[in-house]
Every structure is written in C-alpha cells, then in structure tokens.
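I need you to check the entry underneath: sequence plus fold tokens. Let me know what the token row says about the fold.

>
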Amino acid sequence: MQTIRVHEPGGPDAMSLDTLDTPEPGDGEVRVRIEACGVNFIDVYQRSGQYPKPPPVPLGLEGAGVVEAGALPAGTRVAWTGVPGSYATHVIAPADRVVVLPDGVDARAGAAAMLQGMTAHYLSQSTYPIAAGDRCLIHAAAGGVGLLLCQMAKRAGATVFGTVSTEEKAELARAAGADEVILYTKTDFAEVATHMNVVYDSVGRDTFDRSLTCLAPRGTLVLFGQSSGAVEPFDPQRLNQGGSLYLTRPSLFHYIASRDELVARAGDVLGWIASGELRLRIGAEYPLAEAAEAHRALEGRRTTGKVMLVP
C-alpha cells in the first residue's frame, strides 16, 4: 500500500509518499481499498505540528471505498471520518466507525460529505439549532463546510450572511442560499452583519474579535476552526459587555462519539445528498502523490467546496 506520512512537522513538502506492507484487519476491523480521500484543515494542522502527534504521522482522516476484508462483507461500499491514515490506497478502520453508502452516493460524494457534511450538520442542528427567523453569519461561506452550512441554514429558515474573498466565491455562496454575501477584501463584515443570533467562525484569529461584535444580545459565537491562526487569550468579561454572549469551541468528534449518533448524522447528510436536497461541490481533485499541492491550494484559499485526493 501507499500512504502519506509526515516524519517531521513542516510545510506541504514535509509530506512523504511511503510504501508499506498492506495490513490485515483485526477483530472488529475492516480493510478498505480507498477510492477517494477528503482533504481538510485538520490535516494541515497535524502536518504543521499545530496539532502535535508523535511521528511518523499518518495523514488524512476521511475517505470512502470498498471493503476488502474483515468484519463487513467484501464489496461493501463505505465512508468514514476520524480514521487516521486515510491519505492512502488502503486503510484499516474500526467497523463501528464506518457507514454504508446509500445507493446513488458514490465514493467521491461519500468522502466529500463525511467530515464537512456532518460538521455542518452538528453546527446547525445541535451546537446552535437554527430556527426559522434566525440571522446567522457564516465565514468562509464558499468553502467545503461553508457551502453545506449555507444550505442547511437556509433549509431551517434563517436569513444567511456569508463572507467570501472573491466575486466567484460570492456566486457560489449565493447559489447555496446566502441572502447577503460580503466580500471581506472590500467591506468590513462587522459593518454589514449586525444583530446576528449566531456566527459560525472557522477562520479564528483574523475574524474573532469582529465576530463577537456582530452578535445580538445572548447571541452565540461558534468557533470551529482557526485557518488564520489561533485566537489570542481574551477576557470573558467581553461576553458580558456584548450582551451576555455565548462562546463555544466544538469539534465534530464529540458529536459523533457514539455509534448511534454517527449513524444518525451520516444518515441525514448522505440521505439528503441521495435525494438531491443537499448539493456537494467538489472543487479540486489531486492524485495521492500530489497531496502537497492540495495542501498549498487549501492553505492559499484558492479552493472552493471540497478538495480531494484520488489514489
């Protein structure tokens, strides 16, 4: 098998395409031949050492493919997230952490939907359950999570504001349901997006302070990423001064910790995709050997929708 690993933290060139023996599954495990790997910012954080792990670090957490051996029948089409080493031709996964793909959802769609789709799901359904009439601001609205979150927020009846960097991305956000799209390169979003019930912020350091100022009293700031860097420490008194605001820093893996919750969230997302209620955008695909270029594009904010590796 071939797999992407990091032997020392660093930039995109720190990733190495290694050849290893193809492993055998143990009890309760499956070996999957991977057909598509999802690329996510958490992979960048692990590669760079921002989320430190002992080397060599097997990169990638998300993918889809066909079971070859183990606890599920050979030929079963599955998808997953949270399985380290998913930038590879094969992976060993716990059988209780994979979900069966429904008819009409291929491996590319499955790999594109798991981490980002379930992230948009828990953010909009659980962390802050969006209700009809809510005003919500979504940063990076043309990104992988952003496009899905716009659709889910609009589906719930919210008025959706989104920030993007270019006119091309603005059109994508509008098509996904954003009512008001703000080009943050030209306009201060905090002057336009006011009295928000919720702000979904995956950017972090560059947007955090102004995201707080966008909130209505008792509004909620959901900080679920830090693509621009970690947020500096701040005085919680600011939450009081802003109107008894709420701040949370959630992670998908706490929202799919049980098998039941994983199956329920994945079932909603994959079911909506199969029925056409939720539209995926796969913005770029790279061969496994070009994982470094995929990371450069993602970090350089040159991407829209989902970035994928195809072994």
Summary: The first strand starts at residue 2 and ends at 6.
